Amino acid sequence: MAAPFGAKLLTRAKPGLLAAVPAVYAGLEGYRWVYSSEKDPAALCQSRLASGLVTSAHVRDLEQHGFVVLEGRDAVMKDGVLAAARAEVSSFFSSGRFARSVNGKSVRQDLVCWLRETDGTPGALDPDERHLKPLGPEMLHCVRLLRGITHELDLLGYSTSHDHQVHQQLQLGFYPGDNQSGYVRHLDHSDRSLFDLGLLGWIRAGERRKRTLTAILYLNDPAWSPSSVPRSASGAPGDGDGDGGELRCYHAACDSGQPGTQAFTDVVPTGGSLLIFDARRIEHEVLSSSRDRFALTCWITGTLGPGKDKSQT
Known about the structure:
Layout: H1 5-12, H2 15-36, E1 39-41, H3 56-65, E2 67-70, H4 79-94, E3 99-100, E4 111-115, H5 127-130, H6 137-155, E5 161-167, E6 170-175, E7 183-186, H7 194-204, E8 211-218, E9 247-250, E10 264-267, E11 274-278, E12 284-286, E13 293-304
Antiparallel strand pairs: 1-5, 2-11, 3-4, 4-6, 5-13, 6-13, 7-12, 8-11, 8-13, 9-10, 9-12
Helix pairs in contact: 2-7, 4-6
GO molecular function, one term: L-ascorbic acid binding
Cofactor: L-ascorbate
Keywords: Dioxygenase, Iron, Metal-binding, Oxidoreductase, Vitamin C
């Protein structure tokens, strides 16, 4: 049987050409990851939907503890908007928009769908995205609200980082309610070296090296219930009747070590609640759930430290 043309070409290629193949492939990978990492300054993401949601007390909690949760019925969004957004999520399955993450199944067992405000419009940069069905008004509400949160933090003087840039592309994650699917403990920011990750891994982690904040809007049932029985530190399901699926936020080093204090906080993914955390400080994991679980995530990059005091200019 004759060898394929590609195989013949490679066997005849000079060693120097073969050595260049990984670099070319890395370049293509880099282009793909740069495109998916396009961002806008936080001020350009300002939205009336996010206005007034965050208070000074929220910002101080975020600075001190590394995370803050905005929750309570209608605290972030009305039940009607949430219900319509949840219905639209179902349509993403029928259109085949969910796919496996690039991480291995041993790390995370969810499916992901990538969303932009420009999906299905002539303004989409990627030709493939122009052919998607445009986002409905309620999903656009969720995307704009989530992307507008960083501007609210800036207005209230958030001081852990500044010069924030907000990703245009948001991740919608789906974890099946099988009491097994989750995401192992990890950090959204990466400081790992080229030596640790290899060339392609280091290129893929380029955007993660800039992350300073993560914002998550939960699109689950607003009557979602926490685990009735505490789960083990490994995230194994409890024996209770709760829905589970908590995001376990491990306390930063400065908050731990006190006698009698718990080393983590479990955030219940109640529909309509919003979680903001420091991507450089807060390790976290997704615990398994007994109901299908959905979370819309936005990443924000920035420069460490307080920004220039605008009142002095």
